[in-house]
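Narrative summary of target 7.
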Amino acid sequence: MRVVSQILVIVLTCSSLSLVAQKKAYLKSPDGRIVFSFLLKKEGPSYTVAYKGKILITDSELAMDFKDGGRFAANLSLLKTTSISKEEQYELPIGRARNITSRFNQLTLPLKEQSSLGRQINIVVRLFNDGLAFRYEFPKQDNWADYVLKEERSSFHLVGNPKVRTLLFGRDYKSSHEGLYQKMILDRLPDNNLMDLPALFEYPEKVYVAITEASLRNYSGMYLVKENGVLRSQLTPLPGEKDITVKAVLPHHTPWRVVMISDRPGTFLESNILTNLNEPTKLKDLSWLKPGKTSFHWWNGDVVPDSTFAPGVNFETNKYYIDFCARNNIEYHSVIGYGGFAWYPNNWASYAEQGTYSDVTKTVASLDMQRICDYAKSKGVAIHVWINWKALYPQLEAAFTQFEKWGIKGMMVDFLDRSDQEMVNIQEEILERAAAHHLFIQFHGAFKPTGLNRTYPNEFTREGTFNYEQNKWLVNPITPDHDLDIAFTRMIAGASDYHLGGFRVVKPSDFKPKYIRPTMVGTRTHMLAMYVVLESYLNMVADYPQAYEGEPGFDFIQKVPTVWEETKVINAELDGFLTIARKHKNEWYVGTINSSSGRSIDIPLNFLEKGEYRAEIYMDAEDSAEQPNHLVKLEKMIKKGELLTVKLAPGGGCAIRIFKSDPNTGK
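Modeled conformation, tokenized:
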């Protein structure tokens, strides 16, 4: 697999950049619709953002508070600015699209204190057609070698009173970044509550803004808080510290603060702005990267058939799931443990509760990892393992060396639950060392993606979602409405691991939590469509074999891939429904998920190229509201420009596979 990057750099024209007495600066996006205005006042720098002539963000502070030297804001000089325009073409080995063209205009604003400290910080601004980004850069300088940051004060003063969609966490920085989305107008948002990112803002004029961050490396993860009616950044403190968030040696820079803007929310799910803002991978050989689907029997309660072997951390239990994967085009099997206890020796009370001893280079006595890996390989299935990060990290190199020797291909690293600078660096170290041993990573209990899968394409997916695992123990299940919130908000940032594949769907009135064989609400076609709507390069097939085999719709899961050449958002209505079309090789997969209100929608087929195609369509049945596992499968010939009209049950969906009329030749 080859990663190509081409860059064209030109000097900006006067229409893109204007300077007035070195106190003001203006920058436009390549299409001219987004305008960034910078103003340096005596009390500090600020910025304003307009979209299509209307101001969305106004008079917003740009400042830094340091432990030594105080705030960097007042009495600054604006030195000579520089500007460029770039067009970059690159390839993502895994992503929502493969061949990416990134166009942006960039302005660098060097700011220097007039005081005796004389510190210099550059604010770098990039404008794309679908948003803007800025970051603080700390160049090497004789009078300043390192810094200790108390707080970054980047503010986002949103004009008017847009509707907010966000996760609120009070003041608790220890977080798995999972929860139900809060929806309210900005005025009603409580002050000083941590708002997780991405956060989505809907203006009355149907303009949408999303705020998040990109290229989070050697820095603290960012939340937002509302303070005196204005949103500002809030960094996660270092462990054991109350007021210290970042320690760094110059030269250094912050992550990019990203503001995505569009008049259609679907734009954010097609955008590659986050990967655009990350560095290209340094990996030369990517042939070992193989995204795919995976079993995950923890979710279903470690179910095995009533047969001749006892369930447990043993070869027979894993063989049962490996054989299932081999029969059904599922690329990976997860070795987890059983009943709350891991596959590696330890004295921990459970998967999550840390003890005083663990050794992930060995297995418990009942398990032979080499035998499992060898058997899986003979069946064309690869093995990955679940692991608690606190057990992994102290043995990182020894563990990865042993995993590679056994033939393990990757791992779920769990219970990270932090976003401070130390944890950010730990996660990057895990990715870097794993790549050296040809291992992929699936982070759980983790903060949102920041586009780092461009730099480390072995990051297959992240959790940070309140997902179907909750149905094992919560009285109120995950709803189709929450699925839409995840898709429209969390998925802006990228891959979202979600425990997909529950095949026992019940009416909301019949739901009750079940740790073993948990149930779902919605419809089965909603569950199928989630494999297309959600972005993840290691989607789970988390139910047990007997729940799937011979069941209507399972053939769609057998075929659906996890990595894409193109992504198109066809229909997008917040709190209503979402249709996404994704291309893999010569096939298109289309997924629609619906809210709890039934409706009919049209799916225009304008994304297809000319020619005749065959479509396999999985739709809600007439009685799906009462019998949510019922579905109808249709096959028909289609072509570009046609409309498919689909009736969606409450909580329903539609899943479509589109391919050339002869699937063997593609002609």
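The two ends are 25 Å apart (CA to CA).
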